[in-house]
Specification:
heterodimer, A: 109 residues, Immunoglobulin-like, 5-stranded antiparallel beta sheet, B: 4-stranded antiparallel beta sheet, 11 strands, globular
Chain lengths: 109, 114
């Protein structure tokens, strides 16, 4: 079942922060985050396993609350290069990911 | 290092024509392979996945089919394309060793059915 992402879009100025949320109605085994630039394929950012761990990639970090089946992606001190569409992908201890509809992030100078 | 090749990059096909998209992976053995489709401005829809040669799981009933004739080759086909088959087709690979590792996507095929 497809996870629900929010917000649909966010506009930031360089240096500002943002949070993208991903939630599922099913028990999750892991949550993945990807970023897709316009016209390109998505690129893997990080994976979070159940256990509430937090991970980071540059100034992008994420958390996973397995009790609530929710994950959040944190964009800190955003840079122009952070622009793109962010997707969460959820796995239920099987071999595949279901992706959310995506959150479009625009970072302006 | 592992690489994934997907071709062609763009394709314009008439309604009712056949389709064959190919994806190959190098540098890894027994990968999980996936076909996703992305409509313009939308998310990624899983079409097929495979955990081994000849093992294909279909996620969405449609006029598409997939085959895995070799360990590192994944093919997406259709006998007769529909207008609704237009989209950005992405092949991906991963491995599962206790946890499903991050996907690596191919560069994609942009298909327009006219």
């Amino acid at each position: 079942q497809q996870p629900v992402q929010s917000p649909q879009a966010v506009i930031l100025r360089e240096g500002e922060d943002a949070v993208i949320n991903c939630s599922s109605s099913k028990a999750l085994y892991s949550v993945h985050w990807y970023r897709q630039k316009h016209g390109e394929a998505p690129v893997f950012l990080m994976i979070l396993l159940k256990g509430g761990e937090q991970k980071g990639h540059e100034k992008i970090s994420a958390s996973f609350n397995e009790k609530k089946q929710q994950s959040s992606l944190y964009l800190t001190a955003s840079q122009l290069s952070y622009s793109g569409t962010y997707f969460c992908g959820t796995e239920m201890n099987d071999y595949k990911l279901s992706f959310g509809a995506g959150t479009t992030v625009t970072v302006r100078a | 290092s592992q690489t994934i090749h997907q071709w062609p990059a763009t394709l314009v096909q008439p309604v009712g024509s056949p389709l064959s998209l190919e994806c190959t992976v190098e540098g890894t053995s027994n990968p999980n392979l996936y076909w996703y489709r992305q409509a313009a401005g939308r998310g990624l829809q899983l079409l097929f996945y495979s955990v081994g040669i000849g093992q294909i799981s279909s996620e969405v009933p449609q006029n598409l089919s997939a085959s895995r004739p070799q360990d590192r080759q994944f093919i997406l086909s259709s006998k007769k394309l529909l207008l609704s088959d237009s989209g950005f087709y992405l092949c991906a690979w991963s491995v599962r060793a206790g946890v499903l590792y991050g996907y690596t996507f191919g560069s994609g095929t942009r298909l327009t059915v006219v």
